[in-house]
Amino acid sequence: FSKYSNINFKINHFEELAIEEQLNIIIQTDVFIGMHGAGLTHVLFMKSNRILIELTTSVGSGREHFELMASINNVNYRRCLIIDGSSTTAEKIFDCIIEKISQICPLMTVSIHSQPIVTTFFPVVGNFSNSNITT
């Protein structure tokens, strides 16, 4: 992620946290980014008008349940498709995330000196001014 060196990343491993700690993080999150899986059910505890970005390796029927869960709380939902095996996969994922956030929040800017606002289930998290992002 040297291309994005101005973004301060923070990693949270929810599997190592008590459920109360996980929910405290999610409640404060403005943008939640994570791989397709049960962990994305945390979207049910997000505040309205926040963002969920689901990272998935396939497109197909039966993969819309997190979109439905997001709609329950009026959370904006976006999906990024990941193609495994590419040497540029990490960069493409990050570019997709930035694109999806920009679509929802066109005036959002990346800030070098913001407090960490991204939480992830995998080793990718970032800082965006005036927002909390959980991945």
UniProtKB/TrEMBL annotation:
Molecular-function GO terms, alphabetical: glycosyltransferase activity
InterPro entries: Glyco_transf_61_cat
Domain Glycosyltransferase 61 catalytic: 3-51
Pfam families named among the record's database cross-references: Glyco_transf_61
Superkingdom assignment: Eukaryota
Protein name, UniProt field: Glycosyltransferase 61 catalytic domain-containing protein
Annotated organism of origin: Rotaria sordida
